[in-house]
Every structure is written in C-alpha cells, then in structure tokens.
Amino acid sequence: MGMLDHTVAVITGSTRGIGKAIAREFVREGAKVVITSSSYANVQAAVAEFPPGTVHGCVCNVVSMADMEQLILEATGKFGKVDCFINNAGISDPFRSITESDPDEWGKVIDTNLKGTYNGSRAAISYFLRENRKGKVINMSGSGSDKGSNTPWISAYGSTKAAIARFTYAVAEEYRHTGISVMLLHPGLVRTGMVSADNPTIELSRQLATFNTILDIFAQPPSVAARLAVKLASSWSDSKTGIYLSALNGRRKKGLLLTYPFRKIMNRIDRRTY
C-alpha cells in the first residue's frame, strides 16, 4: 500500500529536475501522474522512463489559461479525475543586475512562474468546485519567499517566489471552508539546469567561487522535496490548508552547514545536475 494509492496528480514542468523527481516519488507511492512540458520531445522522453500505465504526458504552456483548462480535461479523460495539482513549472532570469537585464527575459520569468501558478491554480480549483471534490493544490516557493532571503542578480525569480507565497496564502484563505487544500512547498536548493553555471554571465563569472561553495554546502537531491510533496498530497493534509513545508528549513540548513567540512574532506558532495 502506497501513501498515494488511487490518487491522480498533475505536475507541470515535470519532464526533468524537481518536477520529474516528484512524479517518480508519486508513482512509487501508487499515484497516477500527468507530466507536462512545453516540449513534445521532452514529454515523450520522460514518459518512456516510467512504468507503462503510470503516467500520461501532455504538452502545454502554463502561461496559457486555455492550455491549463485543457490539461485538466486531458487528465480527467485519461484517469477519470484529478486529486492533486502541482504548479511546479518555473524558470529563472540570467544572473544580471536590473540595469543589465533584458526586459523581455525578465517578463518571461514573471509570466511563467507567477502567471503560470495563477493559471494552474484557477483551472484546478474551478474543477474541484465544479465536481465538488476536496482536491489539493501545491505551489512552489523558493529563494525570495522567506524573510531575509534576498535574491540579487535574479530579481525576477525572487520576485515571483515572494509573490507566489502571498498568492498561495490568499487563495488558501479564500477557499478555507470548501475542503480544498492550497499549500506551499519550498524545494530547497537543487542542482538543476536553472542553477547551472554553464555559460555564466559576466556577473556570475565574478562570483563563481562563492556560487559554487553555496551549492556545495546547501544543494540537495530533488528526492528531499519529492518526499515533502508526497506528504502534502497524502491524507496527512486532509482538511488542512495554507500549509508550508520546506526542504531547507532552519534545522536542515544548520545540519548541512555543520556537515559540510566533513563531506568535503570525504569527497561526498553530490555535484550531479538533476
């Protein structure tokens, strides 16, 4: 028996990185999962990695409200229902100051991360209300959302994560008495393409040593966040809303910092990109 038996989940941006790790953990716990990407090739490649019948792939653009509504229709058409919707799709701006930033790139981050979360939440909650289901929406927090978590050089990303946190708490309050759970997950620092130092900007090149040290200390595999996502999607959160779980809370941060010298000496720092 898995923690998510008979659960159907939709996870946006789930063909790689944190999203794919969450999808794997959900399947392991008995869920059926709809994985998505804006790339057909990425969807097809990811679907092939899962046991037959456990996942369904959809190509969609989270910036499009119509695509999000169609995603719900595809998920229910394939698996009969949706119990959990995870707004995981996200991107970051290049490591630059605001005066050196590209306005179009900056705006694309806002559209993908914040508008995408709005679109996914709206589509999922509308479905839950229409079907009188006690569903769950999980939104992704990140650097910029916690007190004191400043994000210089990636101001668009940090702004979206702060806004997503406020959005999540607002929506949780709006639907508090409906049985719909709206929750927030901070995945911590994970080595994905989003935090890659490949082809660094001029500013990142200046700070590369510091950047890599921070990754060595605090980066964790995406499985840590995936387990927390399972907890949020499970019966543990039934009748709860506005919950916040972090894969990099104060206790875990302290532990990673204290163990860093030993991990470095023993050559046990995981530098894989997920």
Overall description:
This protein has 274 residues and is of the alpha/beta class. It has one domain: NAD(P)-binding Rossmann-like Domain (Rossmann fold). 46% of the residues lie in helices and 12% in strands. The chain has nine helices and seven strands. The protein has helices at 17-28, 40-47, 65-79, 103-130, 155-174, 202-206, 208-218, 223-233, 250-265, and strands at residues 8-11, 32-37, 55-59, 84-87, 136-140, 181-186, 244-246. The chain has a seven-stranded parallel sheet, sandwiched between helices. Helix 1 (17-28) links the parallel strand 1 (8-11) and strand 2. The radius of gyration is 18 Å and the shape is globular. It starts with 7 loop residues before the first strand and ends in a 9-residue tail after the last helix.
Describe the structure concisely for a colleague.
With 274 residues, the chain is of the alpha/beta class. It has helices at residues 17-28, 40-47, 65-79, 103-130, 155-174, 202-206, 208-218, 223-233, 250-265, and strands at 8-11, 32-37, 55-59, 84-87, 136-140, 181-186, 244-246.
